[in-house]
Amino acid sequence: MIRELRPCAGALRWSAVAALITAATVPPGMAQQVFSAVAPGSRAAVVGSPSTAFAVMLNAGSNTLTGCVIALDAGYTGELPATFSFQTADASNRPSGTPGAAATIPPGSAQNFILSLTPTAAFAGREIGFRFRCNEGEAQVFEGVNTLSFSAEGALQPDLIPIAATPSGDGVIRIGSVGGSGVMAAAVVNIGAAGVITVSADTGRYAWPLNLSTCETGSGGACLAPPSSTPFSVAFAAGQTRFFSVFVSADPRRSVPFLPDIARVALRFSRPDGAAAGAVSAAVTAAGPAFTPRPLNFAAAANRAFADGARALLIQRDGETLYEDYRGTGGATTQEILNSGTKSFSCGVAALARDHRLFNPDDFAYSGLPYWAPGGAAADAAVKSQIRGRDLIAISHGIPAGVPLGDLGGLDSYQEVLQATSRFAPDRQALYGRPGFQAFAAMFEGRTGGAWTGTDVVGGLDAARYLDEQVLRVIGAGVTFNRDQKGKPNFTSGAVTTARDWARYGQLIIDDGRWRGQQLLQPSSVRRCMHYQTPAYLGYGLSFWLNRPVGNSYTPGLDAIPTAATDFGGNSGQILPAAPDDMYVAWGAGNMQMFMIPSERLVIVKFAGSGDQNAFFEALFSPVG
User: Fold this and answer.
1) 451 neighbors 468 (Cβ within 8 angstroms)
2) In whole angstroms, how large is the CA radius of gyration of the chain?
3) 25 exposed, middle or buried (CB, 10 Å; 0-12, 13-18, 19+)?
4) pTM of the model as a whole
5) What's residue 219's pLDDT?
6) Stretch (H or E) spanning 372
7) Is beta strand 160-165 parallel, antiparallel or unpaired with respect to 181-190?
8) Alpha-carbon distance 418 to 433, whole Å?
9) DSSP-derived pairing of the beta strands 480-481 and 495-497
10) DSSP 120
11) DSSP 221-283
């Protein structure tokens, strides 16, 4: 039984989607040529039967692309019990050429393809990544854009194929007014078995200030029932086509930037057991209000900070110093150890890995840590092989923290984390501590040419040195990292710097990777750190604490989170309810803190000081005079 998608002239031309990604994600210093998109976003396959999807490769450069082929991305996909093939297609998505033959794509042109996956065994739904590569370059993997959610079972299941449209006709939900709204409509055909399907909408792996609601519509677009902000169920017959709309309302206080690889709205269809039955998404962007800075009470904030024992307080807006003072042993040129504030630098390392094509942080961690590979030397390889690179710096990896140590000089930190026993599968619970950040540094070495012998790696790029060469020196930030007994950098708690130099790094991050006119890191790579969301704990992104409500994601007794992040939230569910909800924080032991508040364009560095940090922000935003 072959369940192929039927060609549809005009309905599945994805070059526009790839072009949008082109506009927003070209890495610094690289003339990227190759971009790609895949549709639909999900397939539910039957073991032994081919399932197909459409794809496009776009040549965004001025030179012809040659030898263009497609393969499964092993690092992103992992081990998959399925065979894969591809074939070129014409503009109406009808097969052309010879299966497996390379394509040539002229400048400014697109080439359509048909992808075919034939499962050899049943497996639960998982995200499949593809390598779209030509002799001249390779497309990056963007989840929901050129990936495929894929599952396989022994019997036919509901398999929904959605085709979505937006009013602008370019695959983007464009909300042009502050606090305005937008819509995505979809026609959905079930080419699988009949079944009850749950319909929902979300923003995927990244959280944005949007409210979503969904309804089923008639063919004319009118809702059959009031739009729902919660999932609802429908009974899909085999061969039936139904219509749905997703309504998107923007927060009047905040914008959504045009970052089509991560700022997206997805319409999802799932079975009662949670298995994916279909998905489609569109990029989203929303206008924000004009910037009106709030008055800041520097005297009250300084009195509060220094009364609590702070040694340094630096407040800057748009890179301009508004307030700076030091007490006790603090000083403008005094370097101090940041303790867990060090973790903030992992965001920069992850961004460099993605932007410079060193590796994809969304890949399985074992792609750089073979000790964790399926069937590898780790006793719990079956669990560790499920960890992705992003889990390591999202504290969602499931590995206990071990004995706290600020100085790793007497420890082989890579060996410790590689051999530590997992407590949970990834994305289940939040475990704050050393293992994830040291494992990410080790993955960086392994993916940049490092050769592994057991738990020892030699020859790869040192993450701390690479960050220093590519970013920190450029922005004039002097940062050193203490190291473990094997000379590996301490990315957990070992960074030493001044308040001014840490603020320089914070300014780079809050400015979306831009420094004095130079784009050092791509905006979407930086924004991943602040908008990433894991069900393990919503109060942490990628290497930063987030001030958004954590809902019911915090589980006392299972999650291992420092009390500083849970003591002051009250009933709001935020780490610091007195501060703006878009704030993100680097926070080390001894209250070594850097607060970044995009809505106020503020970077605040505070070294030391005890007490409730809410009191500091209440003072900072208190009436002046």
Assistant:
1) no
2) 25
3) buried
4) 0.94
5) 86
6) none
7) antiparallel
8) 14
9) antiparallel
10) S
11) S-BSS--BSS-EEEEEPTT-EEEEEEEEEE-TT--B---TTTSEEEEEEE-TTS-EEEEEEEE
